[in-house]
Amino acid sequence: MKPVVRNVIRFAAVVAVVGWLLLLRPTGLGGPATHVIVSGASMLPTLQDGDFVVTHDRETYQVGDVVAFRVGGKHVIPRTAGGNGATGYELKGDNNPAIDPWRPTDSDIAGESRYVVAAGGRLIGGLGNPFLLPWFAGWLALFLTPSRPQGHPAP
After folding, report:
1. pLDDT tens, 12-28?
2. What is the pLDDT of residue 146?
3. Which among 59, 48, 42 has a CA at the least distance from the CA of 121?
4. Nearest of 152, 142, 114, 151 to residue 1 by alpha carbon
5. Are 89 and 83 in contact, with CB atoms under 8 Å apart?
């Protein structure tokens, strides 16, 4: 691989890591983001099953915001349809005819949808595959391994 291409790949990797630290680092690691993989069809056509959603916390939310909060240990992603952060928001999936039974307050909500990667949850889920993860790690190591300057003999 040419040194210029390798340096561009390294620069892109550094930019990706810095971007992850600032925008995508999970709250559990001191970051601003909650990561959710959409499951089901309640938010069609806005969100599809398998979409990867990154949310960021806010002090309060407005009617129409797509938010994530926990129900039974799992994140749910509906849209706010009414209410307020003190007494609880009314929530509704875009594909549901009725208001959801939950009434989360501002402190219950993990965040508002900021970034969506269509079908990204399927890719992330695939990284847990015991065959795919080592393959991905190997390719990443190959691209990030320092190269010898051309014209110099190997030690």
Report:
1. 889 988 988 898 888 98
2. 62
3. 48
4. 142
5. yes
DSSP 42-85: TTTTTS-TT-EEEEE--S---TT-BEEEEETTEEE--EEEEEET
How far out from the chain centre does Cα 155 lie?
Answer: 44
In Å, how far from its chain's centre is CA 146? 30
Report the predicted TM-score, pTM, of the whole model to 2 decimal places: 0.74
Share of residues in the chain with pLDDT > 70 (%): 85
Q: What is the spatial distance between Cα 65 and Cα 113, in angstroms, rounded to a whole number?
A: 8
Q: Summarize pLDDT for 43-92 with one digit per residue, the tens.
A: 999 999 999 999 999 999 999 999 999 998 899 999 999 999 999 999 99
Q: How far apart are CA 135 and CA 120, in angstroms?
A: 18
First-last CA distance in the chain: 19
